[in-house]
Design a protein that fits this description.
The complex is a heterodimer of chains A (235) and B (276).
Chain A lengths: L1 H4 L6 H10 L15 H6 L6 H14 L1 H18 L2 H13 L4 H21 L3 H9 L6 H11 L4 H23 L4 H10 L1 H13 L10 H10 L10
Helix pairs in contact in A: 4-5, 4-10, 4-11, 5-6, 5-9, 5-10, 5-12, 6-9, 7-9, 8-9, 9-10, 10-11, 10-12
Chain B lengths: L11 E11 L2 E10 L2 E4 L9 E7 L9 E8 L4 E6 L3 E3 L7 E9 L4 E5 L3 E3 L4 E10 L4 E10 L12 E10 L2 E10 L3 H4 L9 E8 L3 H11 L5 E8 L2 E8 L1 H20 L7 H4 L1
Protein name (chain A): Urease accessory protein UreF
Keywords (chain A): Chaperone, Cytoplasm, Nickel insertion
InterPro entries (chain A): UreF, UreF_sf
Amino acid sequence: MTTAMATPITTEADLGRLLAWTSPAYPIGGFSYSHGIEMAVEVGALRNRADLVAYIAAVLADGAAAVDGPLLAAAWRAAQAGDAEALDAVAVLAAAFRGTAETALESLQQGDSFARITQSAWPDAGFAAFVARHPGRLAHAVAFGAAAGFCALPLRAACYAYLSGFVANLVSAGVRLVPLGQTDGQIATAALIADVARATDMALTTALEEIGSAAPMLDLFSMAHETQYTRLFRS
Amino acid sequence: MLPSPARHQRADGGVLARFTAAPRGAAPASLYQTAPLRLLLPDPEPDEVTTAALLNTGGGLAGGDAVRIGLDLAAGARLTVATAAAEKIYRSLGPPTRIAVELTLEPGAALEWIPQETILFDGASLARATTLRLAPGSRLLAAETLVFGRAARKETVTTLNLHDAWRLHLGDRLIWADALRLRDGAALADRFRFGAAGALATLLCVGPDPLALLAVLRGALAGPARADATQPAPGVLLARILGDATAVRATVAAAILAVRAPLLGLPSRLPRLWTT
């Protein structure tokens, strides 16, 4: 844990990969997932910027990020160590650790797309072999963590980048759904910076057997979204 | 095997049982039990399958207590398991209360696992792990309810340490995993976490025709509690029920009533343990 917590040295090439992999332009379909925000807006539980910040803060501290952050870190460590058995166990656990049908789709579809595009644009033999063992069954966080581990990107930076990308995507969904002004969206992103750092700390210090969430309200929004009458988003 | 005794544990025991198929549902092929847990097998109602009552003779569990429940259902065995009363998890002075539940179903076995509520007192520390190993062709209805604080005393939970993990294996593959993790009571009040609810129930169904059963389940969840259902993994149905303890109990009961017949072929009525 101490090495993982140390300040990493991120080279420009590392930074380039992380910026590419977390950019909304990386074509994995993130724009089509709201992670329950569409339902929360529909029922009036999420009406303004402050609500959006509170919702995403809950996702980071006690929702999907509390599970996916440590899974990303575990995938990174196993990939770095070349421990295929441990990496496969993380992948199976992560694919199973999904609270609802739509959050499972959100993670597994983006994980699959991320794996395919990353193999084409940033080929790596170890990553390719790993992906081939889990066709269509890779959680986004695990595909990301493994890819970062195989090419030795710094763990903390990779984790922080992944969670920042996740937050940016949810803010974007909120901006479109509430709706909020583009500037309000960026104010929300800025307000969540400390929450992303805390979620990164938690990701690097939480053992796999300790992971868990504490936000059944978020699961209920996601479940209700499955039967929402008019939907723009896939989650 | 039962956990090995440790000196400072107030309770350290459990129930390990294997049931084989019998005309009325199931018959115990082996049954080992140590205090504080006991498994009783009262005569079931005429149209019910074999019903087992799990009893904690110690009245509740404190920090440092450890209990294990392991039930194996052989091919074709059909069993309902409920508890005689709500389980109480008392304030811990440090070490957690540990509960391990392992339920194994062979092909064609059917288990209804419907313990009554687990009440977490303010200051409780609980680590519970429920492991379900289901052979293809087995059927499961499992419902568990956590109550945060003694509702009758209007107790507010501020200190709580909870890790409640579920692992569901179908055949030799882990297909669903989940854990609730609370390190204090703050999440209970938050509108995007527990929404000030006093109780949370989790209901799992595994069996044939999940989409038809999902519709039945959703239909049964309208009520005073916030509740909904989903299929988080192929063939696995999950419902979450959130609200005050009374509303959650009523909604869980309605959901059990609705899925008993289509999933397990049992009458649409609550087992007597739930109603007395």
